[in-house]
User: Fold this.
Amino acid sequence: MTHSDMDEFYELYALGVLESEAAAQIDEHVADGCAYCLEHLQDAALLTSSMAALAEPRKPDRNVRKRLLDSVGRPQRSHNLWFAVAALSAACFALAVYSFWAAGAVRSLRNQIGAVEDERNELRSAVEILSQPGTRTVQFGVAENVPHGRAFVTPRGGIVFVGSQLPGIAADRAFELWLIPKQGAPRPAGVFRPNERGNFVNVAQRSVNVSDLQALAVSVEPLQGSPAPTTTPILIVPLA
Amino acid sequence: MRLGESGDADLINKLQRRDPDGLTAAYDRYGPMVYSLFLRMTQDQSTAEDLVQELFLRVWNRSRDFNAEKGTLGVWILSVARNMGLDFVRSARARFKTRMQPLDKTDDLYLSYKPKEPELLIDSARLVREAFANLTADQKRVLELAYFEGFSQSEIAAQLNAPLGTVKSWMRAALERLRTAVRPGETR
Assistant:
């Protein structure tokens, strides 16, 4: 195949839709350091990358940026005004101590209230789901020493996943519930950790077509959850 | 937003010095576009946000692979973003065993992207968007199915219930029009 034959293939290659035979020929040229192919592939890469702009422009939530920067450590800015900073710091120290103490107390109270509100909201959601007509109950695990419990699945898409005896888990890990469709990728349905007695409740209010689901699964993930499972599931609950 | 010019070179230098300012700037420059792409592909806000975070952590961890003199970040980021999005929508149960599929074989190519001229990615993106608006409905559909869904031309033909030859012809014509918009005067 000559270069002029290949001319119309470069964008198809960059898009990943070129037939394997033609793609293999381009691969060979690239492996041989063919400057013509490299140049055209780079142009094609620019074109296909620009196609990202065909998606409707949306802005991510501010927390995404914060979370990202937190995960790598925020920039520490240096400057030359150490003396002024030290003097100002000394002047503010007493106020800061007091503020810190007061803020800590308020934060602690807020956290407690927040936790109670979260729990209340979760229970309210669970009750709403459980009271819907047509709620289906699936029991999993029967022995006392293995993970066992029940999944309540409603036709309108809510899922309450409750049980006990999940294995121990590191402090920086959590369990994540997955909806396994009959076709397509698993979808996340909430992150949870068992309480000190090993019991857990996870409520997922997701618009899901229940008839398209074949199973629920649980895997161990980072605390904030993952967009797709990163570990082998420790529990699979068939729904079919 | 310069592609491969001082803007990206500056970013790359900062990233290689492990300066979080570099990551902040990279996020501010490319984050919204990447997020829009993930949202379009996954149709799920929280998944899109997680993928954005994962992608930029990858930028952070792979900063040593970039070359400030000849490399550009934008093309690489958007190419990897598309791969990650496709990986997410395509692979189902396989993801229980392995987190990420290997990057596309073109990864190294994008890392060494060397612009021939001071092209602007944002300009290129705008030109592509404008040209896309003028495509026929069939041409738009085949491009969307290939780019956002990762379907092969045969799969697109089956999906649209159209002959494979027709799909290929729509695809060729569509890409030709986008190419002409981005690089006017170039004919093949």
About this structure: The first helix of chain A runs from residue 3 to 6.
